[in-house]
Fold:
Amino acid sequence: MRKVAILGVGHTPFTFLAEKTAVELFSEASMEAINQSNLKVSDIQAMFVGNVLGDFSEGQGMIQSYAADEIGAKNIPASRFEGACASGTMAIRDAFMWVTSGFYDIVIAGGVDTVSKMGTPLATRTFAMFTDAHYEYPSGLTFPGAFAMLAHLYSAKYSITLSRLKQQMAMVSVQSHKYGNYNHLGQLHKVITIDDVLNSGMVTSPLQLNDCCPFSDGAAAMILASEEIAKRLTDKPVYITGLGQASSGRFSAQKEYLPRLYARDVSVRQAYAMAGITPKDVDLCELHDCFSIASIIAAESLGFAEFGHGGELWEKGEADIKGRIPINMSGGLKSKGHPLGATGAAQAIDIVKQMRELVEQERQVEDVKVGLTDTLGGDGIICNLVLQRGW
Amino acid sequence: MRKVAILGVGHTPFTFLAEKTAVELFSEASMEAINQSNLKVSDIQAMFVGNVLGDFSEGQGMIQSYAADEIGAKNIPASRFEGACASGTMAIRDAFMWVTSGFYDIVIAGGVDTVSKMGTPLATRTFAMFTDAHYEYPSGLTFPGAFAMLAHLYSAKYSITLSRLKQQMAMVSVQSHKYGNYNHLGQLHKVITIDDVLNSGMVTSPLQLNDCCPFSDGAAAMILASEEIAKRLTDKPVYITGLGQASSGRFSAQKEYLPRLYARDVSVRQAYAMAGITPKDVDLCELHDCFSIASIIAAESLGFAEFGHGGELWEKGEADIKGRIPINMSGGLKSKGHPLGATGAAQAIDIVKQMRELVEQERQVEDVKVGLTDTLGGDGIICNLVLQRGW
Structure:
């Protein structure tokens, strides 16, 4: 199996109410990635697209075929992946396999969704299709409910008062907005304070509005190529060195295990083992902060803090730009936005840009050699991880 | 790259209004495939599922995770593929890559949908998401409209009177029902005559009710494994020797090319080249007869008849059980049913059973060594092909 590198990357602005369709957005991101790679469209051999809600938001299925045609990549195989919010990284993992195996040399992978167009009620309803629709959703378990429950369980299990946990959670959101404010591709450009979080509207106790990421529209795409081609086209190839993917049973069936998420714990072992590294080797992490509590829980399973001590990463500045493990310097889902299918690809792309020192100076981490992208699908029952290493 | 074989196969009955959910149906098919392979659930390393409309028919996304958990395949990676009606073969093609590359040794692949549950109006509306939703569907281009247009174009291009073409189309449906009547897993068990077709209700001229496949619920799954494992577990491994996948621009943009479908023509070249064979080497074909005209058009691009002469395969009995190239001995989509995500997997499975001489005697083709599965996605803008060869 040969090494696989990321060449150019493309990333539309993440916004509310995008004027463009999902096909147009993914095409825009794809063309940016192709141009940045010094490739022609005709070099692209296959397309792998994460897309969750295209059928609902625009009444358009199989958008991958239209996107391939839109950029002029005539008649290539184009596949759509749906793993809820992990769809983008699911597509990337799959694209990796087609290149590492030698079947293709140059492919495009990423994702897109136009969620905000649906409006909040329908978006909320459709998101609930990614919990167990037959048994859990009818009991009221939407995503905010699931993650609010995790916060309560976390507080109880680790004997952290809810008031302290809410402070920690607020710090997560404050940091995300601090750096997201600099990200010109992000959705929310607004510095917030801990008081802003604690005074924001209650969504589902203990989650308040500023503990929750927004609904977003956008696309992200990257070129994956064999090492040989990468070395010919760029002096800054970013290699995909580790991947993890796992599913688990429905959220409520994991009750003994929560607030840890089983799918993530399995994926983490896979990814680090494949790359042959440990959490200590990671210089930068983009993790799945759909809700502030999700960041704390993720940081622990990813190996950056002991269980029950994740929040301290933010309390002590260890997750900050000059800390031990900078987290979500893109602004995260909270500030940058969360267009489902695009999210994981956008996280991995921000890490590529950090490695190439191409992000805004205010959020540029020094000397990033190893990065980790973490994505959750649904109410945490899918997890996809991508480990990247610079040239 | 190593050889990949199909071991056990599983196939639920295809029905109207299945009592079971998509997760239950796919689990049932999966367990049949696992048991038939003399494997344990814990041997399964990954799951690849084609599912098109789960979100609409049952309000359930990411069914692959729930299905993996339902059969007890704890925490394996499970991915969902959507390529409209080609989703099942898209999943199989992808699963093939993960095994041939050596990353996994034993995986499960297939698909499921529960379409009929939605009722005809919603099913028709959701199917139209797999035409171009922004420009074509608003002009009234649903699937029957698209294929009716192909029939008119075919008649004009090859100077075959519509009346003769309708006779040929009727022969396609009559043959499908003849053999589908014997298929105990099929949906429609009813022998029909040419008059039955020509007297059935008009859907979209020239397509009448008996030119159209039904809405269906069902699942199909197969075990893919490396050659080494296959040889240990069965004396009848069926190898996947060729694969093709391509997309094309929107249906209306192919106007100069129609009634041929560009995606199929590209896929055909890929699949035969990969297997190193020609159409003459194929002993049995299951092709995508969503409408009777689709069979005639498919048979030509697949290389079984000259262009403009596809219908003669049925007129002359060459597509019949003792003919030159038996086609759709399962009953095809027309009689067996068409539960989108399951369809391509079910076709490939029927070929496996034919090779192992496990189908009903009345539809058993003699000495099948090489089989071809053909699936179209949407209004023909995706095509996935699978070539299989017996032990």
Q: What stands out?
A: Chain B has two domains: 4-119+215-239, 141-213+242-389. The first helix of chain B runs from residue 22 to 36. DSSP finds 14 helices and eleven strands in chain B. Chain B touches chain A through 59 residues (CB under 8 Å).
